[in-house]
Records
---
Amino acid sequence: MDDNQPQYRRSNGIRPGSIAAKIAQIIWVFIVFIVVVLIIRVILSLIGAIQENDFASFIYSVTGPFIEPFRGLLQVSEYQVGVARLEFETIVAIVVYLLAGWGVTAIVQALRR
């Protein structure tokens, strides 16, 4: 490696192409997938999707394990008006998973430095 060549670093402190960068990318891909599917669940519940529909059933079954740790956390788990409902536990799960992803990525960055 040429010493005169500049070292490129991202603003997050991880060199592109390093193992830490790959781990951070994998973590964020996983977290983004979970959050996107949870957001789809929130939208489906807000528009009053029929849970027996194949797509809605698939989304609810995929997201169920990710919401399970938050069941019973709040006194009011959902707010329903007609067929539309707002699932507070799902919103809490979204926030927690985003914060957890950010925290784990920050730890990976700190260990790499």
---
Amino acid sequence: MSRRPLAPIALALALLPLACSGPKKPADEQSGAELYATYCKSCHGKQGRGSFLNLGPSYEGLAQHWTAENLLEYIADPKTFAAADERLGEREMPAIDPNVSMEARRRLVEHALGLMD
């Protein structure tokens, strides 16, 4: 019997609520906290301290490394941004839905920055 890695299964289980429920209202009508809950919480945790499945890193100690502008750039294209920033290494974070407006993205980023210390 072969053993399969648990990481893909854990990721699928963590993302299942997003696939099943989706946002309660359009992104342009959501607060930063609601957008965070929709797009970030399953991996980074409710308060940005990581999830129980350890899928995304904690935000602890990251405030000095992020600005609103570079975080907006990162969420739009994580793979390209990470390739140019050696601090990030190999990341598998999905990009934010391209249909989410810049105004909504700014609310999301403002909320995420508020979780960093």
---
Amino acid sequence: MIGLFSKKNESAGEITMKKLFDAKGKVKAVEGTEETKNDIAILQHTASVIFKKLEKQIEILEAIEASVDAKLVNFERLLHMADSIHHPQGPVNRQHEVMALTYRGLKVDEIADVLGMQRGEVELILNLNK
């Protein structure tokens, strides 16, 4: 039987790719045979399965990233709390801390949480330093 599974040591995908592409990777002229249509359908199905798996992996990675971001904010808050116990801070240091956290990409609510400040106080410092 000549067709998709005629070669013993090659997978269906490898055989199909050889049929559709020449040695330089350019698409060959594809005849409208039933065999070719079947090969294309197999490739489309394989691509669909791969993309579905990739989408699931992306969702998992996005959830992990969100979790890491939340843990990072909590960790920074805890570090600040530990540091403030050992080193009382004046208003000048607070301004520097707010600006440093802003440059690190934290949002106003995150900065307020990390530093144990009110949102309005953080916004005031940021507006004064524009």
---
Amino acid sequence: MKVQKCINCGTQFRYKSVQKSIWAGYKPIICFNCGAIHEFRFVYRLVVSVIIVLPIFFNQWISDIAPSLLVHAAMYFGYLLAAIGVMPYLIRYRLKNNNLE
């Protein structure tokens, strides 16, 4: 599982630039090698939303296994850190239509 590469030149996007793109409102990524603009695919916006909201659906189960509020909060925090760390590897971009190639 790798961070996506540029569709034009094959240069791999930087992990940091994909993270910034996700947390800055799904901004497009510009390839630093060829200048091609890649935009966020809509289906991956749903993927990001589901990943972030997923613990809410398991709240009762997590409450049952967590002996205290501190452990409960630590489990959520750990999940969020893991989700944020994995997202750049899951997200895929497409080449923007009006690129000059």
